[in-house]
């Protein structure tokens, strides 16, 4: 009987041991499989990161600040894109400010190709001189989503007033003893003004030019122009060794339906008053100009060329 119980106990113990090993092995198998799932999770995370890094973008390379362009000239630059479909249309602009007022112009369009892109366009002569940036924008669909991407220059570049060159001739007057240079497109005329004389060098067809009014103090008392030669309260300007007094006299050269930016330079020599008057009509100037910045390179050159010859 004892032997029979002992024989029964041994198989029971063996069964318990086997069952324990099976259960422990099962838990180890499950734990091992759970650990094996970690690389799969990391792979999904990398895929998500990769998707973020492939967002479409555009980067302006040039002009990117510090460059100088002129009215009427050509502006060119470059940019690069990433993950933008080929053939995508993009528009580019120049954007800036003038006296704190936003100004700018649409310059043109370009089409995306692979790699670095280039663009160029002509700056309108009417573009207001100032500091600008290039802005490029692209619009396209990915599936049902409309994307709008853009970029602009990091810093400002300059657009300057168009350099104007002209062949200059020399006019000499022996009676009053002076000479002045004038462009070949100017019409030279003279007329009597209350005992004095006015010499005009007016550019055709722009109507810009220089008057030289010569006479005595009595001559100019009978004219609408202000005689700053007597007041001497204008800005002193040295023209070829002679001090002239300059100031704005635009109000005296404006009338109904017309007006001019007018700067007068006046001096007295041997009792005779010499008044050089630079005239620029309002209607040929771009909007935004004021007397302080209404300049004409050729007219300035004419004024600076005035000389006494006796």
Would you kindly provide a written description of the structure presented here, covering whatever features stand out?
This protein is an alpha+beta fold. The chain folds into two domains: 57-160, Sandwich (Immunoglobulin-like), CATH 2.60.40.10; 168-308, Mog1/PsbP, alpha/beta/alpha sandwich (Protein Transport Mog1p, Chain A), CATH 3.40.1000.10. Helix content is 22%, strand content 45%. The chain has helices at residues 2-36, 38-53, 217-221, 228-231, 297-305, and strands spanning 57-62, 68-70, 74-82, 89-98, 101-111, 116-122, 130-142, 145-152, 157-160, 168-173, 178-183, 186-193, 196-203, 209-215, 235-239, 242-248, 260-269, 272-281, 307-308. The strands form four sheets. It has a seven-stranded antiparallel β-sheet. Strands 2, 4, 5, 7, 8 and 9 form a six-stranded mixed β-sheet that branches. β4 and β5 form a beta hairpin. It starts with a helix and ends with a strand. Residues 1-8, 27-52 and 284-293 have low confidence and may be disordered.
How would you characterize the largest beta sheet? Answer: 7 strands, antiparallel
Q: Which outline best applies?
A: elongated
Percentage of residues in strands: over 45%
Major sheet: order of its strands? 12-13-14-18-17-16-15
N/C terminus separation: 157 Å
């Amino acid at each position: 009987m004892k032997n029979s119980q002992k024989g029964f106990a041994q198989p029971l113990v063996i069964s318990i041991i086997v069952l324990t090993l099976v259960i422990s092995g099962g838990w180890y198998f499950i734990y091992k499989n759970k650990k094996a799932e970690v690389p799969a999770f990391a792979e999904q995370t990398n895929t998500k990161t990769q998707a973020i890094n492939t967002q479409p973008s555009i980067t302006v390379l040039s002009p990117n600040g510090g460059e100088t362009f002129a009215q009427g000239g050509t502006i060119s630059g470059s940019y690069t894109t990433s993950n933008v479909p080929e053939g995508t249309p993009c528009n580019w602009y120049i954007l800036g400010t003038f006296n704190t007022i936003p100004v700018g112009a649409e310059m043109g369009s370009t089409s995306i190709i692979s790699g670095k892109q280039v663009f160029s366009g002509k700056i309108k002569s009417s573009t207001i001189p100032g500091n600008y940036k290039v802005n490029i924008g692209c619009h396209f669909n990915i599936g049902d989503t409309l994307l709008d991407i853009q970029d602009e220059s990091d810093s400002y570049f300059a657009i300057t007033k168009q350099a104007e060159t002209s062949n200059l001739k020399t006019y000499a007057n022996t009676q009053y003893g002076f000479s002045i240079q004038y462009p070949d497109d100017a019409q030279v005329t003279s007329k009597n003004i209350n005992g004095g004389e006015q010499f005009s060098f007016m550019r055709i067809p722009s109507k810009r030019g220089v008057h030289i009014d010569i006479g005595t103090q009595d001559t100019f008392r009978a004219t609408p122009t202000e005689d700053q030669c007597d007041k001497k309260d204008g800005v002193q300007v040295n023209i070829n060794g002679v001090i002239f007094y300059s100031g704005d006299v635009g109000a005296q050269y404006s009338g109904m339906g017309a007006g001019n930016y007018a700067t007068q330079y006046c001096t007295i020599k041997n009792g005779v008053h010499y008044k050089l008057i630079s005239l620029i009509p309002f209607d040929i100037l771009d909007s935004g100009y004021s007397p302080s910045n209404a300049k004409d390179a050729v007219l300035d050159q004419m004024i600076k060329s005035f000389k006494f010859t006796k």
